Amino acid sequence: MNITTRLLCRDELHLVRQVADEVWPLTFREILSEEQIVYMMEMMYAPEVMEREYAAGIRFNGVFDGERAVGYYIWGACKEEAGVAKLHKCYLLTEYQGKGIGSRMLKEAKEQAAKAGFSILRLNVNRHNEKAMRAYFRNGFKAVEMVDKPIGNGFFMNDFVMEATLS
User: Fold this and answer.
1) pTM higher than 0.90 for the full model?
2) pLDDT digits over 116-128, tens only?
3) Which of 142, 124, 141 has its CA nearest to residue 40?
């Protein structure tokens, strides 16, 4: 394995969707209905959505094994609260999980946010995604709130809000 991470260019955003198409159904098949997975994929990963986020300054980071995209983490400033950055997405292909790569991704996201002047990195995680929650706890995040956010079509995001203090 030759794992590298780098900021993606606008014309590479399709790599995020490529990885999401593989990892999302596996991650959420026991948690969400197929209809909700399809709805959320379009809500978050449609090309125009990612283009708009990119243009707004959201940072798309790709994780690669050689030339192959195997993961991504996406973060940016939290519009609602000064000093807070939001980790919007952090996913890794199943065969790369459990090898310390996810922890490296979280460490990099925290370092980048701290370097950009933020004091907190916040994320939302599905309350039933126990594997992800364990990884976040291991990497210094703490649950601070429980939310049920309507996202349209009668669907909700049932999440824990988690935060890590940046140094």
Assistant:
1) yes
2) 999 999 999 999 9
3) 124
